[in-house]
Design a protein that fits this description.
The protein has 373 residues and is an alpha+beta fold. It contains 8 helices and 17 strands. Pfam families: Peptidase_M24 (PF00557), zf-C6H2 (PF15801).
Length: 373
């Protein structure tokens, strides 16, 4: 038998002498000198150093492929990117009233009412199931969220997880929103649109997932750390998480909805952060958004008190700088007015006879949050 031909290339890892035939795909994509590795192990081990070559190349040419050049006065470094076309939902899946027209008529009909729905056991089971599917989709998004992956690719993962469970991604076409979840990066507070921007080392990414299953909605979100994130951002993300959990602790029958804001403000203001005022938690169930309205800041005048059978979200948006927000010219993406970062966590909660149940709770299979590693 003929002797196996030894490749002319040597492994890019200087500590390795082995011949190498595996080429770094990112180098190829960026048009760099080919970098060879002997195998996946050296490629992985040497990655922290090797990736710096990619970064330099990107800085040299300015990685602006896919950026929408619209002349908008952005408040921070983030820019709009191209978005992909709308994803389909199979015909057999039950859809909300806005799926075609964009108009949630059932919600619009009850606007102005102060009534807070009390759900029956049967309805609660429906919302519980929607919440379980939401949790699965959020965990799938979390597993997919890595440096170099676009939020559009995560949209595909979220969309497919939801429709595999015969459910509908609630954000899709809600007031004409074009995607199946909201992706809010860095200075985006909420309602970011998944697009073609690859996630960058050091980003923070909030994925907000809502699911409609057999007539019931659920709603939850988490903020993930992408790659190596600055300590200041970790503190911000941790503050948003802890503020939500502290607010949940006070929830039980008889508590006024306006009390939630004080718990959140007290926790995060102590750390020098601020609470967004424009966007609030909300009732969720038969409708995507309904009563109660749940502001997250101290001194709010929200109506009503908690009663067994109420279902609503708490979803504090916490800013590193000032609380003020503004809207991008896509009419969805809400960003901080000062361009500093913002973080958020959200759960769907059920008030029980003696406390509250987190319907969207993490499970044993949920990838651990980076802030807890
Ligand atoms: Zn949400
Ligand atoms: Zn929500």
């Amino acid at each position: 038998m003929e002797k196996e031909e030894i490749p002319a290339q040597k492994c890019n890892n200087p500590e390795c002498e082995k011949p190498a035939a595996l080429q770094c795909p990112t180098c190829i994509k960026l048009g760099l000198e080919p970098a060879f590795f002997c195998g996946q192990k050296c490629f992985k081990d040497f990655w922290p150093l090797h990736k710096l070559f990619h970064k330099k190349k990107k800085e040299d040419k300015g990685d602006d492929s896919g950026i929408v050049n619209d002349g908008f006065k952005y408040t921070g470094p983030l820019r709009r990117y191209e978005i992909s076309k709308k994803r389909d939902v199979p015909a057999h899946i039950q859809k909300p009233d806005y799926h075609k027209t964009g108009q949630p008529l059932s919600e619009i009909k009850v606007q102005g009412s102060k009534h807070i729905p009390v759900y029956t056991d049967e309805e609660i089971e429906g919302i519980r199931l929607a919440s379980k599917i939401g949790r699965m989709a959020l965990d799938a998004a979390h597993a997919a969220a890595k440096v170099g992956v676009t939020t559009d690719e995560i949209d595909r993962v979220v969309h497919e997880t939801i429709i595999e469970n015969d459910a509908y991604p609630s954000p899709l076409n809600y007031y004409n929103f074009p995607k199946s979840y909201c992706s809010s990066i860095n200075e985006v507070i909420c309602h970011g649109i998944p697009d073609m921007r690859p996630l960058q080392d050091g980003d923070i990414l909030n994925c907000d997932i809502s699911v409609y299953k057999d007539g019931y909605h659920s709603d939850l979100n988490e903020t993930f750390l992408i790659g190596d994130v600055a300590e200041s951002s970790k503190t911000l993300v941790t503050a948003a998480h802890d503020a939500l959990m502290k607010a949940i602790e006070i929830c039980k029958p008889g508590v006024m909805y306006r009390q939630i804001g004080k718990v959140i403000s007290d926790h995060v203001e102590e750390l020098g952060f601020s609470v967004v005022r424009t966007y609030c938690g909300h009732g969720v169930g038969k409708l995507f958004h309904c009563n109660p309205n749940v502001p997250h800041y101290k001194g709010n005048k929200a109506n009503g008190f908690m009663k067994a059978g109420h279902i609503f979200t708490i979803e504090p948006m916490i800013n590193a700088g000032k609380w003020k927000d503004l809207l991008w010219n896509d009419n969805w993406t809400a960003v901080t007015a000062d361009g500093q970062r913002s973080a958020q966590f959200e759960h769907t909660l059920l008030i029980t006879d003696d406390g509250c149940e987190i319907l969207t709770a993490r499970t044993e299979d949920s990838p651990p949050l980076e802030i807890h590693l």
